[in-house]
Amino acid sequence: MSHDHNHHHDQHHHDHEHGEGTILSEVELRVRALETVLVEKGYVDPAALDALIETYETRVGPHNGARVVAKAWSDPAYRDWLLKDATAAIASLGYVGRQGEHMVAVENTSTVHNMVVCTLCSCYPWPVLGLPPVWYKSAPYRSRAVIDPRGVLKDFGIELPAGKQIKVWDSTAEVRYLVLPERPDGTEGWSEEDLAKLVTRDSMIGTGLPRQPAEVAR
Amino acid sequence: MSMPDRSLLPDLPCDAEGPVFRAPWEAQAFAMAVALHQKGLFNWPEWAQVLSEEIKRAQAAGDPDTGETYYRHWLNALERLVVEKGAATADMLGETAAAWDRAARATPHGKPITLR
Hints:
The complex is a heterodimer of chains A (about 220) and B (about 120).
Chain A: E1 17-18, E2 21-22, H1 26-40, H2 46-59, H3 62-74, H4 76-84, H5 86-91, E3 103-107, E4 112-117, H6 126-129, H7 134-137, H8 139-147, H9 149-155, E5 165-170, E6 176-180, H10 192-196, H11 201-205
Parallel strand pairs in A: 3-6, 4-5
Antiparallel strand pairs in A: 1-2
Chain B: H1 24-38, H2 44-60, H3 70-84, H4 90-105
Helix pairs in contact in B: 1-3, 2-3
């Protein structure tokens, strides 16, 4: 899988030189104002903000969820625990925190495919998947996932057998879902570490399937 | 299985699995909401409610809501809750933003901008 297209646009419409001064954009000014006031009043600590950002940019991400899935694939007792009490099973691997307080794992099977959306805004299980991708937050996904899940999956390049049931789970501020995808064939005897390489972010949202064994280097 | 070419699907924008913030202010706005929640200024159901109202309001005002403007909605929600919960007043935020604007304009490009 290639990562060649990276929507990390450098939005440098600000910070340009205008005469000798610096022009900040309207949103930058509003964010700076909020931070200044909130720091002055003791509501936030700048160092804590930096630590939060660092966590979400580097340490928290889909690789956490991939470990959960890989463990469930290799350890039947863990899988049962995950399906019964996802919050505790996930916390046992150290993935705890905001927006992951009430997790529910939904398992894909030969007859059922699960897909997660938040029709209200963009609730998402941060501790296991990091922050949501742009499309997850978009109005078309939020509305179409419920009305036409099969069509949305087609947009993502996934065609499911006609007989397969699709269940769409609507996240709320209280409950977050993690899809447990089906373990790909041909992975018997793989270590958890290798299995985790097969697990994509989208496969844990239900808009994708895991990679095939031939696609990853072991 | 190859990656589908989602660039052909204008109504389902997509990003790579990489960094999630496209500008530093997005990350700052995100972190402030999380920090204020930790501090107990609001709970998540309140946050989700205000954020979804801001998204609906932007949509009604013509925002395509493709996810690109998500952190604008986030910032609107954050300002609204901060004011509603009495952590700051709208005037205070407006005056401070204006002070930052003056400070920035008075600061040569490349130098750190400081207030006062």
